């Protein structure tokens, strides 16, 4: 046939052998090691749960306490990432700390090209220039609030002879370093009643009593509920007793404590328990 010497039996046998080797049954019985490994890898990949984001990205340019409160309602993540150029107020950091949230800073490149897997949660509140202006306004208000909150609230109760005023050094110190009110009374009983009522209304208040009746004032004051009074005699003694009792009322006799020592004691007292 066509001048060729064909061995038909051998040719048919070779073809049939080749077909049997490529049949589905034969292939299933001789699955390659590579295909088995690929199938196992794919099965493991499908069985693994999708990774949840671990970092909460904040795209705000200005972060104030109100921003933290709003964003905290949208996520349970405890690690927040702020852009490197974000301005955050002290009050915002205090709010984050109170919620147990850690903060990390990211550079601009990190924000523009976030890690693709897993994608961090992202939130943006500002969507316009008007919103930015509101954020800046809130930032200014937050700064003022934080500054005010960092100053001690002090009541200066003066119970001295009519022609004698509270020590000027203490008054000047409180004007510069505290939010304070001065009240002048004519007897110790009224003074301690005012102190007790004021402390009951504001447990963050600190009271300085200027009087010549320090011992009497201490007895009257400590009989009132919520009042912890200490009489200052020397700087070291006053600091020791104030800290030991966590006092909220300091009693000074201008005749016993000089102007410089009085300022030292009042400074320690107003800063006590504050950052």
Overall description:
By secondary structure, the protein is of the alpha/beta class. It folds into two domains: 93 residues, no CATH class; 121 residues, Sugar-phosphate isomerase, RpiB/LacA/LacB (Ribose 5-phosphate Isomerase B, Chain: A, 3-Layer(aba) Sandwich). 49% of the residues lie in helices and 17% in strands. The chain contains twelve helices and eleven strands. It has a five-stranded parallel beta sheet, with helices on both faces. Strands 5-3-1-6 form a four-stranded parallel beta sheet. A two-stranded parallel ribbon has the order 2-4. α8 links the parallel β7 and β8. α8 runs parallel beside α12, α9 packs across α10 and α11 packs parallel to α12. The longest helix is centred in the middle third of the chain and has 21 residues. 26% of the residues are buried.
Order of helices and strands: HHHEEHEEHEHEHEHEHEHEHEH
- CA-CA gap between termini: 107 Å
CATH class of the largest domain: Alpha Beta
Question: At CATH's second level, what is the architecture of the largest domain?
Answer: 3-Layer(aba) Sandwich
Which stretches of 5+ consecutive residues score pLDDT under 50?
A: 108-119, 123-128
Q: For the CA atoms, what is the radius of gyration?
A: 39 Å
Question: CATH-wise, what's the superfamily of the largest domain?
Answer: Sugar-phosphate isomerase, RpiB/LacA/LacB
Averaged pLDDT, please? 77
Strand content: 15-25%
CATH topology of the largest domain: Ribose 5-phosphate Isomerase B, Chain: A
Query: What is the number of independent domains?
Result: 2
What fraction, in percent, of the residue positions are helical? 40-55%
The helix count comes to: 12
Structural class category: alpha/beta
Order of strands across the widest beta sheet? Answer: 8-7-9-11-10
Describe the largest sheet: 5 strands, parallel
Q: Tell me how many strands there are.
A: 11
Shape: rod-shaped
